[in-house]
Amino acid sequence: VESSGRDHLKLSVIGAKQINWGVAVGDDLDRLDEYGWNELLKKKYIVFARINPYQKFRIIEECQKRGEIVAVTGQGVSDTQALACANIGIAMGITGSDIAKQAADIILTDDNFASIVKGIEEGRLLFDNLRLSIAYTLAHLWPEIFPVVLQFTLGLPLGLSALQILSIDLASELPPSISLAYQSPENDIMRIPPRHRNDRLVSRPLLIYSYAFTGTIITVGCIISFLFVYR
C-alpha cells in the first residue's frame, strides 16, 4: 500500500500500527541494508508512505530478489519504470497515461481495483479447468495404445479397429473434455494459496496421475473385458 502527503502519512502510520501492519517511510528505505530489508519484508502487510519512483523501484527489486511475484498498479509517467520492472504491471485504462499503458502488462478498462481480483479468479479457474481437461484426455490414450503394443509383441488380435478408435475419441472423449473447460469455479478458489511460479500446466504429477494411475486402471479393465469376450 502506498500513500503520500503529510496528513496521509500520519493516518497511514496510525492505521497500520493499529492493525499490526508494517510501516516504512520513503526516507527510511534509503538507509536499509540487507538485514533491514529482510526484517521489513517478513511482514505480511506493509504500508509504504511518501515514496519516490526510485524507492518504488527498489521495493520491487528487493521483493523479486526474495522470490516474490510483484504486481504494481500505476497511472502516471512516474509509474512507468515500476510498471515495466514488475512481474505484472497494471495500468489504469481511463485515467492512466499512454506511456503507463504501454509499459503495463494489463490495462484496467474500468479503473476498478475489484477487477484485479476478478481477473485472478478467472485465471485460476481457466488454469484448473484446462488441467482437468488435459488429465481426462491423457487418461484415455494409454488404453488405446496398449492393445496395439500387445498386438506387435504378443500377437494378440486388435480389440478395436482404427475407425472404432476414432469414433470413440470423437463421441465419448471430445465432448466431456470440452465440457470440463467450462466448469464453474469452486467456492474456495480464492482461498487457495497461489501456485508456485515454476508450476506448469502439464506437470509430472498430472502425467503420473493420467498415465500410471487412471490410465492403468482403465487399461486393465478394458483388457480383462476384451479377453473375457474373446474367450
Automatic annotation (TrEMBL):
<dbReference type="GO" id="GO:0005524">
    <property type="term" value="F:ATP binding"/>
</dbReference>
<dbReference type="GO" id="GO:0005391">
    <property type="term" value="F:P-type sodium:potassium-exchanging transporter activity"/>
</dbReference>
<dbReference type="GO" id="GO:0005886">
    <property type="term" value="C:plasma membrane"/>
</dbReference>
<dbReference type="InterPro" id="IPR036412">
    <property type="entry name" value="HAD-like_sf"/>
</dbReference>
<keyword id="KW-0472">Membrane</keyword>
<dbReference type="GO" id="GO:1902600">
    <property type="term" value="P:proton transmembrane transport"/>
</dbReference>
<dbReference type="Pfam" id="PF00689">
    <property type="entry name" value="Cation_ATPase_C"/>
</dbReference>
<keyword id="KW-1003">Cell membrane</keyword>
<dbReference type="GO" id="GO:0036376">
    <property type="term" value="P:sodium ion export across plasma membrane"/>
</dbReference>
<dbReference type="GO" id="GO:0016887">
    <property type="term" value="F:ATP hydrolysis activity"/>
</dbReference>
<dbReference type="GO" id="GO:1990573">
    <property type="term" value="P:potassium ion import across plasma membrane"/>
</dbReference>
<keyword id="KW-0812">Transmembrane</keyword>
<dbReference type="InterPro" id="IPR023214">
    <property type="entry name" value="HAD_sf"/>
</dbReference>
<protein>
    <submittedName>
        <fullName>Bm11537</fullName>
    </submittedName>
</protein>
<dbReference type="InterPro" id="IPR006068">
    <property type="entry name" value="ATPase_P-typ_cation-transptr_C"/>
</dbReference>
<dbReference type="InterPro" id="IPR023298">
    <property type="entry name" value="ATPase_P-typ_TM_dom_sf"/>
</dbReference>
<dbReference type="GO" id="GO:0006883">
    <property type="term" value="P:intracellular sodium ion homeostasis"/>
</dbReference>
<dbReference type="GO" id="GO:0030007">
    <property type="term" value="P:intracellular potassium ion homeostasis"/>
</dbReference>
<feature type="transmembrane region" description="Helical">
    <location>
        <begin position="206"/>
        <end position="230"/>
    </location>
</feature>
<dbReference type="InterPro" id="IPR050510">
    <property type="entry name" value="Cation_transp_ATPase_P-type"/>
</dbReference>
<feature type="domain" description="Cation-transporting P-type ATPase C-terminal">
    <location>
        <begin position="157"/>
        <end position="230"/>
    </location>
</feature>
<keyword id="KW-1133">Transmembrane helix</keyword>
<dbReference type="InterPro" id="IPR001757">
    <property type="entry name" value="P_typ_ATPase"/>
</dbReference>
